[in-house]
Write a structure and sequence with these properties.
The protein is of the alpha+beta class. It has 3 domains: 4-94, no CATH class; 95-126; 128-251, Nucleoside Triphosphate Pyrophosphohydrolase (Alpha-Beta Complex). 20% of the residues lie in helices and 35% in strands. It has helices at residues 27-30, 71-74, 76-94, 167-179, 240-251, and strands spanning 4-8, 11-15, 33-38, 48-52, 62-65, 105-108, 113-116, 122-123, 128-137, 140-146, 157-160, 182-194, 199-210, 220-226. Strands 9, 10, 11, 12, 13 and 14 form a 6-stranded mixed β-sheet that branches. The longest helix has 19 residues, at 76-94. It starts with a strand and ends with a helix. 29% of the residues are buried. Its EC number is 3.6.1.22. GO terms for molecular function: metal ion binding; NADH pyrophosphatase activity. It catalyses: a 5'-end NAD(+)-phospho-ribonucleoside in mRNA + H2O = a 5'-end phospho-adenosine-phospho-ribonucleoside in mRNA + beta-nicotinamide D-ribonucleotide + 2 H(+).
């Protein structure tokens, strides 16, 4: 059994019952593909992906789903397969031309890279590492309200790794920039691919060391300490942010 992961305008196209279409079921849409390929580099499966023309109509039995919320329909395993397929599709879509000489690129299956048809330059899939950290102080967790969050929603702090940084330095800098506090005892927690559009989330825990909270307002509008029984609304999907929060709550249950 192989699956076909189909995308249109950033959304994933599923069967109306929320299932990922198998390759045969996707046949009515293939004539509208502007690009397609295999999901796995070495062909471990025959799962494929396809990018639909933006104006292509969806046949009866298909529907568009938001990728971030589709895990409730497809389950955790397929959610991350969808993410991998989207990452590859989006990378090829954005690397049609060589950044060195401007000529067209073509997919090189052996290298799993986009190769310039003129100068031979290779462009591999882009992965953007980002840290996400749970900070604790005296049995409370530090949570922030992002500028693009719905009203009342909070999360642990996160940010992208910058050139020349190691992960621990990034943890310290991001927490300091967003909340004005310094942290210590930084420890690795877990990692997770997060293709929105191309991140690798690296989770950490840390302890407050010094400073008083002062949110930066450009990335977070509010930052507070919350006790385990005071946790506000947060994204309860399969994200590592939820795992960090839920692990904190579980460890502090009386």
């Amino acid at each position: 059994m192989s699956f076909c992961y189909i995308f249109q305008r950033g959304r994933v196209i599923l069967l109306k019952n929320g299932a990922v279409p198998q390759s045969g079921e996707a046949a009515p849409l293939e004539k509208f593909f502007v690009n397609s390929g295999l999901v796995d580099k070495y062909g471990e499966t025959r799962d494929s992906w396809g990018e639909l023309r933006e104006e292509a109509p969806l046949p009866r039995g298909f529907a568009a789903f938001e990728r971030r919320g589709c895990w409730t329909a497809v389950g955790e395993e397929q959610f991350f397969r969808i993410g991998k397929a989207f990452h590859i599709m989006d990378w090829q879509r954005l690397h049609k031309y060589c950044g060195r000489c401007g000529a067209e690129n073509a997919f090189d299956a052996e290298e799993c890279a986009m190769r310039c048809t003129k100068c031979g330059e290779l462009f591999y899939p882009v992965i953007s590492p980002a840290i996400i950290v749970r900070v604790e102080k005296e049995g409370k967790i530090l949570l922030g309200h992002g500028v693009n969050f719905p009203a009342g929603r909070y999360s642990v702090l996160a940010g992208f790794v910058e050139p020349g940084e190691n992960l621990e330095s990034c943890v310290g800098r991001e927490v300091r920039e967003e909340s004005n506090i310094s942290v210590k005892n930084i420890k690795y927690f877990a990692s997770q691919p997060w293709p929105f559009p191309r991140s690798l989330m690296l989770g950490f825990t840390a302890e407050w060391e010094s400073g008083e909270i002062c949110p930066d307002k450009s990335e977070v509008t509010d930052v507070r300490w919350f006790a385990p029984d005071e946790i506000p609304d947060y994204y309860r999907g399969v994200s590592i942010s939820a795992r960090l929060i839920e692990d904190f709550v579980a460890r502090h249950k009386k």
